[in-house]
Structure formats: C-alpha cells, structure tokens
Amino acid sequence: MAKSKEKRKYIEKLKNKYRLNILNDQTFEEVWTMRLSRLNVIAVFGSAAILIVIFVIVLIAFTPIREFIPGYPDGNTRRNIVVNALRVDSLERELKHWKSYYNNINNILNGGEPTSIVSKPDSTVKYKEIRFTRSVEDSLLRLQIEENEMYNLSVFDNRKSKSSISNMLFFTPVKGVITSTFSLQQNHFGVDIVAAPNEAVVAVADGTVTLSTWTLETGYVIQIQHDDNLISVYKHNSQLLKKQGARVKAGETIAIIGNSGELTTGPHLHFELWHNGNPIDPQKYIIF
Prior knowledge:
Layout lengths: L1 H14 L1 E7 L6 E8 H24 L13 H35 L26 H13 L5 H7 L16 E4 L9 E5 L5 E3 L4 E9 L3 E8 L3 E11 L6 E2 L4 E5 L11 E7 L2 E3 L8
Antiparallel strand pairs: 1-2, 3-4, 4-11, 5-10, 6-7, 6-9, 7-8, 8-10, 8-11, 11-12
C-alpha cells in the first residue's frame, strides 16, 4: 500500500502545474507567462532529443559528412578499390589466355592438335533483355529516303554499271595494327594485322564462302567470293565460323584470329584481296 501511495504521489508531482512568468524588471509588469508541468517538460525535451538524434543519423548516412568518420573510406578510396578490382579481373583473364596459348604450343610440339580458344560473353550484360527496335526518328528517316528514291532509277543503274572496286565500301576485317605490308617483290600478297586475342574476323563485303579449310602452311583459311570478280582471303585463324557455300553479309563474323599454320610468327591475320585473278594492295581500298 505504501509503495502504491508513493507512486501516486510521484505521478501527481509530475502532473502538478507550474507557472513560468517573465516580468519587467522596472515596472514588474507581466510580459509573458506559461503553464508547465514536469511531465510536459520531460516530453518536450525527450522529443527534441529524439529528433536531434534522427537528424544526425540521416545527415551522416546520406551526406558526404560520413567520410569524416574514422575508418570510413572516402570517395577516392572506393574509386581505387573498383579500379583495382577491374585490373585484377583483366590480369586473371589475360593470364588464362597466355596459359592456353602455351598449352597449344606444347600440344603442337608434341604432335597434338591445338585447342581453339573461344571468348566467353560478358556475364555482366543481360543479353536476353536487349531489344532491337526501331525508334521514331529511324522510321521517319527510312520513310523519307524511300520517298526520295522511289522514282530515282539511276540508283539501280549505277549499281549495275560499277566496274571498279574503288567505288565499293569495305569493312575492316579486324581491328589491329599492320605489321607487314603488301609486297609483290617478296611474294607477300596481302597484309599482316596483329590484333587482340580472340578478336573476331569479319567479312569485308557481301559474298559466298568458297573455301573453309585447314592447310599445313596457313592453318585455318577462309575465302569469300564477292561481286565484280573480287576474292578476299583470311589466313592463320584459330577457328572458322562459316562453312563452304555459306552466304555472308558485309561485317558478319566469319572466324576468330589465331596463330595456326607453319608460316606464322605469332597471333595475327593474313588478309589478301584478289581482283580478276591478280593480287591487289588492301590498304588502297580499306582503312585499317
């Protein structure tokens, strides 16, 4: 009973009202007054403390102020972590390619067959979600061109009257650096292009695959017959993606760059152009 009475007295004390007056010191006139209780004061100061704590937490969590906390990494540190992670991933990938390259050399020296190195697609890209759709601007441009060329018969006449390959538009077979140029004196009927490992080799123009085979000297070779009696040849590939008789479009992938065959000193593409049965310098018609 005594404890319950004490609790009631304590609660009553918390509820007791007090008056806070502010008086003029000279005239003793009441300027401002306010009625308070201990319970009200506790509630006001408690709520203010909670709001201040919440404000400080939000300020630290969603502003750069958190970088001043000891042990928390700043923006430059996080950026360096991401860059180093990408570099390590690239080094691991490059190391795997070199290991595969040396394993192929050992297999060739031991009389075995080299294994083809196929590049894997980027796992960070969701290819299933890619949608190739025409935009409004693309549709309007197509409609405008079709209307302008509807009655232009010279388009088809010019296409049939082409007799020189200088008017043809060629794709670059592979992106790289030319290390050996065309030379009739040295019986080098093409150009040698060094590119990144597993780089895709594409057709320079529309045509039909007339040869897709393996030879002892030039390794995996693919040959394409184009219009105007033009032939393109791609040698020393690591893998052929098109068979003989297949119809290919300009820019379509036909092989993977490699180092196959005896007449090679390293991974590269030997590319040749033949017109009317004669070899021509590809650098005069294609920008590498």
